[in-house]
Amino acid sequence: MDRIISNALSRYMNVFVKNWSKNALSLSVLKGEGKLSNLELNEIVLQEIFDMPMLKVISAKLNELKVKLPALTRLKSDPVQLVIDHFELVLEEPIESIHIDTIFRDFMAGMNKN
Predict the structure, then answer these.
(1) 60 near 47, Cβ under 8 Å?
(2) Residues with Cβ < 8 Å from 49, sequence gap 6 or more?
(3) What is the secondary structure of 8-47 as a DSSP string?
(4) What does residue 33 show for φ and ψ, rounded to 5 degrees?
(5) What is the C-alpha separation between 68 and 21, in angstroms, rounded?
(6) By the 8 A CB rule, do 93 and 55 touch?
(7) Span 27-83, pLDDT tens digits
Protein backbone atom coordinates (compact mmCIF):
# COMPACT_ATOMS: atom_id res chain seq x y z
CA MET A 1 0.00 0.00 0.00
CA ASP A 2 2.85 2.39 0.84
CA ARG A 3 4.37 1.80 -2.61
CA ILE A 4 1.08 2.56 -4.40
CA ILE A 5 0.67 5.86 -2.54
CA SER A 6 4.33 6.72 -3.05
CA ASN A 7 3.98 6.19 -6.82
CA ALA A 8 0.81 8.30 -6.98
CA LEU A 9 2.46 11.04 -4.92
CA SER A 10 5.43 11.12 -7.30
CA ARG A 11 3.19 12.46 -10.07
CA TYR A 12 2.50 15.59 -8.02
CA MET A 13 5.91 15.96 -6.42
CA ASN A 14 7.73 15.95 -9.77
CA VAL A 15 5.94 19.20 -10.62
CA PHE A 16 6.72 21.06 -7.41
CA VAL A 17 10.02 19.57 -6.24
CA LYS A 18 13.25 19.80 -8.23
CA ASN A 19 15.18 17.12 -6.38
CA TRP A 20 12.25 14.73 -5.87
CA SER A 21 13.19 11.19 -5.00
CA LYS A 22 11.08 8.56 -3.31
CA ASN A 23 13.95 8.33 -0.82
CA ALA A 24 12.93 11.76 0.52
CA LEU A 25 9.61 10.25 1.59
CA SER A 26 9.05 8.40 4.83
CA LEU A 27 5.53 6.95 4.76
CA SER A 28 3.43 4.73 6.99
CA VAL A 29 -0.10 4.40 5.65
CA LEU A 30 -1.21 2.24 8.56
CA LYS A 31 -0.17 4.96 11.03
CA GLY A 32 -1.51 7.70 8.74
CA GLU A 33 1.80 9.53 8.77
CA GLY A 34 4.27 10.72 6.21
CA LYS A 35 7.34 12.92 6.18
CA LEU A 36 9.26 14.60 3.37
CA SER A 37 12.73 15.97 4.05
CA ASN A 38 15.22 18.33 2.39
CA LEU A 39 13.17 19.42 -0.60
CA GLU A 40 14.32 21.96 -3.15
CA LEU A 41 11.15 23.44 -4.63
CA ASN A 42 10.76 24.39 -8.28
CA GLU A 43 11.13 28.19 -8.29
CA ILE A 44 9.64 28.53 -11.78
CA VAL A 45 6.43 26.81 -10.70
CA LEU A 46 6.31 28.88 -7.49
CA GLN A 47 6.74 32.03 -9.56
CA GLU A 48 3.64 31.10 -11.52
CA ILE A 49 1.64 30.12 -8.42
CA PHE A 50 2.45 33.34 -6.54
CA ASP A 51 1.79 35.43 -9.66
CA MET A 52 3.84 38.37 -8.39
CA PRO A 53 5.55 40.00 -11.40
CA MET A 54 7.17 42.55 -9.09
CA LEU A 55 9.19 39.80 -7.33
CA LYS A 56 11.26 36.96 -8.75
CA VAL A 57 11.57 33.65 -6.92
CA ILE A 58 15.28 32.82 -6.73
CA SER A 59 15.09 29.68 -4.61
CA ALA A 60 12.79 27.80 -2.26
CA LYS A 61 13.69 25.05 0.18
CA LEU A 62 11.65 23.01 2.59
CA ASN A 63 13.47 21.32 5.46
CA GLU A 64 10.66 19.02 6.50
CA LEU A 65 7.00 18.52 5.73
CA LYS A 66 4.98 16.21 7.98
CA VAL A 67 1.65 14.85 6.81
CA LYS A 68 -0.99 13.41 9.12
CA LEU A 69 -3.73 11.50 7.32
CA PRO A 70 -7.08 10.53 8.82
CA ALA A 71 -8.17 6.89 8.77
CA LEU A 72 -8.85 5.64 5.23
CA THR A 73 -12.58 5.48 5.95
CA ARG A 74 -12.57 9.17 6.96
CA LEU A 75 -10.45 10.65 4.14
CA LYS A 76 -13.40 12.53 2.66
CA SER A 77 -14.65 13.98 5.93
CA ASP A 78 -11.56 14.63 8.08
CA PRO A 79 -8.77 17.08 7.22
CA VAL A 80 -5.25 16.19 6.15
CA GLN A 81 -2.80 18.02 8.41
CA LEU A 82 0.43 19.49 7.04
CA VAL A 83 3.18 20.73 9.33
CA ILE A 84 6.12 22.64 7.83
CA ASP A 85 9.33 22.66 9.85
CA HIS A 86 11.31 25.29 7.95
CA PHE A 87 10.52 26.99 4.65
CA GLU A 88 13.09 29.27 3.02
CA LEU A 89 12.00 31.48 0.14
CA VAL A 90 14.49 33.82 -1.54
CA LEU A 91 13.00 36.61 -3.65
CA GLU A 92 14.49 39.53 -5.57
CA GLU A 93 13.15 42.51 -7.42
CA PRO A 94 13.53 41.81 -11.15
CA ILE A 95 14.71 44.36 -13.66
CA GLU A 96 11.54 43.86 -15.69
CA SER A 97 8.18 42.17 -15.17
CA ILE A 98 8.13 38.39 -15.20
CA HIS A 99 5.66 36.12 -16.96
CA ILE A 100 6.48 32.51 -17.67
CA ASP A 101 4.46 29.48 -18.66
CA THR A 102 5.47 26.35 -16.83
CA ILE A 103 4.54 22.74 -16.41
CA PHE A 104 2.33 23.85 -13.51
CA ARG A 105 -0.26 25.30 -15.90
CA ASP A 106 -0.31 22.02 -17.87
CA PHE A 107 -0.48 20.06 -14.62
CA MET A 108 -3.48 22.06 -13.37
CA ALA A 109 -5.21 21.78 -16.75
CA GLY A 110 -4.86 18.01 -16.51
CA MET A 111 -6.28 18.02 -12.97
CA ASN A 112 -9.35 19.97 -14.11
CA LYS A 113 -10.12 17.32 -16.74
CA ASN A 114 -10.44 14.60 -14.07
Answers:
(1) no
(2) 104
(3) HHHHHHHHHBTT--GGGEEEETTTTEEEEEEEEB-HHHHH
(4) -130, 150
(5) 20
(6) yes
(7) 777 788 888 888 999 998 998 888 887 888 999 999 998 988 887 777 788 888 889
